[in-house]
């Protein structure tokens, strides 16, 4: 997390969880709180999940409902104000779906980003040329939209690799991702060489599961695990993306499952130094 402190999406989730704890402590249901505040149960649920803007007036109403006064009220109001500040990614928001904006806001504040990518090079590791070739596959794309999305991808990479406190990036790739000629042979060769260079950074670990490993647990679909530090570790989350949206998994049991799954994958994959040699040899053979 940067020296500026957590971003608005982290603050929103933090505030939502505090409000849920206060409601439960007051022994009130979602329906009870919604009736008092003049909101719907769905709205209260989305507020507690950090999935929508949390207005200060609603924070005041809910605190009144839970019999919360100062100084806790002042703290929560300040969190609400901070959670509604504009994030760095809003300059690209025209081309971003809401569900992905939420992910990016959390990703840029995470202390550790763990990713499994079986079919293509992960976005945080892509070269501009590879990214452009991949982005051109989208619907209703234009030269300008591809350029903007590629710039946005580069901005995400810069945020994760921030100078003051870079996130720890752990990526497991399937060999298939290294073999698929996105953009053609030259683009793929340069991309693989870029991976070799990235793997030399102290905050980045790249491992490849070779074809020789055969079938392995978890290989069916990609996933992203965001981990937080500095008192925000209870905000850890798993992000599963599909063609039309995304699913967030935040229950402790889900987090534990995916942590263990990722670690099992790293055990199956080539070690980091072996991966670097493997990628270097592959690039030379193209």
UniProtKB/TrEMBL annotation:
Pfam families documented for this protein: DUF5753 (PF19054), HTH_31 (PF13560)
Residue ranges annotated as transmembrane are none
Domain HTH cro/C1-type: residue ranges: 19-73
Please name the GO terms that the record assigns under molecular function: DNA binding
Q: What is this protein called?
A: Helix-turn-helix protein
């Amino acid at each position: 997390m940067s020296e500026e402190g957590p971003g608005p999406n982290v603050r929103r989730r933090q505030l939502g969880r505090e409000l849920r704890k206060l409601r439960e402590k007051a022994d009130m249901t979602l329906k009870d709180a919604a009736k008092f505040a003049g909101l719907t149960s769905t709205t209260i649920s989305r507020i507690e999940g950090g999935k929508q803007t949390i207005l200060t007036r609603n924070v005041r109403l809910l605190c009144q409902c839970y019999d919360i006064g100062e100084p806790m009220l002042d703290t929560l109001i300040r969190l609400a104000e901070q959670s509604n500040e504009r994030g760095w990614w809003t300059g690209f928001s025209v081309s971003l779906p809401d569900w992905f904006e939420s992910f990016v806001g959390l990703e840029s504040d995470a202390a550790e980003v763990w990713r499994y990518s079986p079919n293509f090079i992960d976005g945080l590791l892509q070269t501009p040329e590879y990214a452009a070739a991949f982005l051109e596959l989208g619907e209703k794309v234009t030269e300008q939209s591809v350029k903007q999305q590629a710039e946005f991808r580069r901005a995400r990479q810069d945020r994760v690799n921030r100078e003051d406190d870079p996130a720890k990036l752990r990526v497991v790739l399937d060999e298939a991702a290294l073999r698929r000629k996105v953009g053609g042979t030259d683009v793929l060769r340069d991309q693989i060489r870029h991976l070799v260079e990235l793997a030399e950074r102290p905050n980045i670990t790249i491992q490849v599961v070779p074809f020789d490993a055969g079938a392995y647990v978890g290989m069916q679909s990609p996933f992203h695990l965001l981990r937080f530090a500095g008192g925000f570790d209870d905000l850890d989350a798993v992000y599963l993306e599909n063609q039309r949206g995304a699913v967030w998994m935040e229950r402790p049991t889900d987090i534990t499952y995916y942590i263990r799954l990722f670690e099992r994958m790293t055990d199956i994959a080539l070690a980091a130094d072996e991966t670097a040699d493997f990628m270097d040899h592959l690039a030379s053979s193209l």
